[in-house]
From TrEMBL:
The chain crosses the membrane at residues 12-30. InterPro entries: Glutamic_endopeptidase (IPR053168), Neprosin (IPR004314). It comes from the Eukaryota. The keyword Cell cycle does not apply. Pfam families: Neprosin. Residues 110-345 form the Neprosin PEP catalytic domain. The keyword Repeat does not apply. It comes from Corchorus olitorius. This is Neprosin PEP catalytic domain-containing protein. Keywords: Membrane, Transmembrane, Transmembrane helix.
Length: 345
């Protein structure tokens, strides 16, 4: 999503957060941190001048009208289940190597967006209380420390007062390009399972079997917190207290792809979006997102019937195509591209 005021946003009144389930293989060491010995929905964290701070352990409700399938967690590379009452903590030595290889801040997603390119669809001017989608998983090639992302955005506010929640997968390691997963301040993990930052395997194959994952973000009716779900697993939430412009509802939902183009060598990057193929190739040959939905105030899932192309930065490099809605896939679209070519100099 094109947000030219993102630098002001970071320094002003809002928080940029990104949660990614990325499919690069990772080898990590994690430890459990005690968060609760109480099985109730909330726990006492601290008392400060008479104020009790609590963690919400489960949503007070779940979205309705969705077909949620269980996920085989054995397919996640680096998946670990910690003891009950603990959460995983990333102690990966590979993070330090990556940060030293690519200096922090080189492509800060919160700041300069001029070298980011997009192929996204949007619904806007509504009252949205969350979003979901099935995201086709690939391994697009990336170069020069760049990134390739497939995700959705939940947005409210403008200019200096802007909030964005983002969920999806990423190719290449976003630890070098800003914060993500539990490295972003504010996100509260409640699950004892290590899901964020794990590698997804298998991935889709060109012309062959396709693989996708279900991600959902919804606003809790009682607490106002924004909960993240992976299939049928509650991972955690963003507290409403840190998202002033999302404390009520979102005004915009967007789905699609994003890449960084560093223009190394004075030409367009060859970093791929989606699976590196243009959307006209269709099923099994181009990346897709399917069953796009948003949630109304009651928590009911509503098909995103009225999506339209939003930010298609350079269609000769990365494009999108919206087919007719069908029974199984609902509202869906294909997106992506190879980057540099004769048509994309």
């Amino acid at each position: 999503m094109d947000t030219s005021n993102r630098k002001k946003t970071k320094l002003g009144y809002s928080i940029f957060v990104f949660v990614a389930l990325y499919h690069m293989l990772s080898h990590v060491h994690v430890h459990g941190r005690s968060i609760s010995s109480d099985k109730s929905k909330t726990m006492e964290l601290a008392k400060h001048k008479g104020t009790v701070k609590t963690i919400q352990m489960k949503p007070s409700h779940y979205p309705t009208g969705m077909n949620v399938e269980k996920f085989d967690l054995n397919l996640l590379q680096g998946y670990i289940k910690c003891p009950e009452g603990t959460v995983p903590i990333d102690r990966s030595p590979i993070n330090n190597f990556t940060l030293s290889k690519f200096p922090p801040g080189k492509y800060e997603p919160q700041d300069d967006r001029s070298n980011h390119e997009y192929a996204t669809v949007i619904v806007s001017d509504g009252n949205y209380f969350g979003a979901s989608a099935w995201l086709n998983v690939w391994h697009p090639a990336t170069f020069n420390g760049e990134i390739s992302i497939s995700q959705f955005w939940i947005v409210s506010g403008h200019g200096n007062e802007f909030n964005s929640i983002e969920a999806g997968w990423i190719s290449d390691n976003y630890r070098s390009t800003g914060c993500y997963d539990l490295h972003c301040s504010g996100f509260v993990q409640t699950s004892n399972q290590r899901l964020l930052g794990t590698g997804i395997s298998p991935i889709s194959t060109y012309g062959g079997k396709q693989f996708d994952i279900l991600l959902t973000v919804h606003k809790d009716k009682q607490s106002g917190n924004w909960w993240l779900r992976f299939h049928d697993i509650d991972i955690g939430y963003w507290p409403s207290s840190i998202l002033s412009k999302l404390s009520d509802r979102a005004a915009v939902i967007s789905w699609g792809g994003e890449i960084v183009n560093s223009k190394a060598g004075g030409r367009h990057t060859t970093t791929e979006m989606g699976n590196g193929h243009l959307p006209d190739e269709g099923f099994r040959f181009a990346a897709y997102m399917r069953n796009l939905a948003f949630f109304d105030e009651s928590g009911a899932a509503i098909d995103a019937e009225d999506i339209e192309p939003y930010a298609v930065t350079r269609p000769e490099c990365y494009d999108l195509k919206i087919p007719t809605k069908n029974k199984d896939w609902g509202k869906h679209f294909y997106f992506g591209g190879p980057g540099w070519s004769d048509q994309c100099p």
